[in-house]
Amino acid sequence: QVQLVESGGGLVQAGGSLRLSCVASGSIFSIISMGWYRQAPGKQRELVATITSGGSTNYADSVKGRFTISRDYAKNTVYLQMNSLKPEDTAVYYCNLDHYQYGKLRVDDWGHGTQVNVSS
Length: 120
Known about the structure:
The strands form two sheets. Strands 2, 4, 5, 6, 9, 10 and 11 form a seven-stranded mixed beta sheet that branches. Strands 1-3-8-7 form a four-stranded antiparallel beta sheet, with no helix packed on it. It is mostly beta strands. A hairpin with a 6-residue loop joins strand 4 and strand 5. The protein is built from no helices and eleven strands.
């Protein structure tokens, strides 16, 4: 079993910054990628940013230039630095882990989410 624990969410004013962290633990053989997704009230979950084990990154157009994803796979940890926050960034942010278990089964796991509120 895998556990993902997010932290760093909170309330900030527009233009402010926040850094999210996610620590993974459990039966992880190898990491394919880690990332962040978000879901706002009344909207579908959407990709925010991902990073592969090789360091390749992918960002949603809405956050390019403002958010930066990074990782420390030695600690099974992924970060999301969020700058120039906007009210439309308000959402629950979920950590994602795409990985192989020791039985070589590919599994996609999710954290419980952390709330980010950006006030105008």
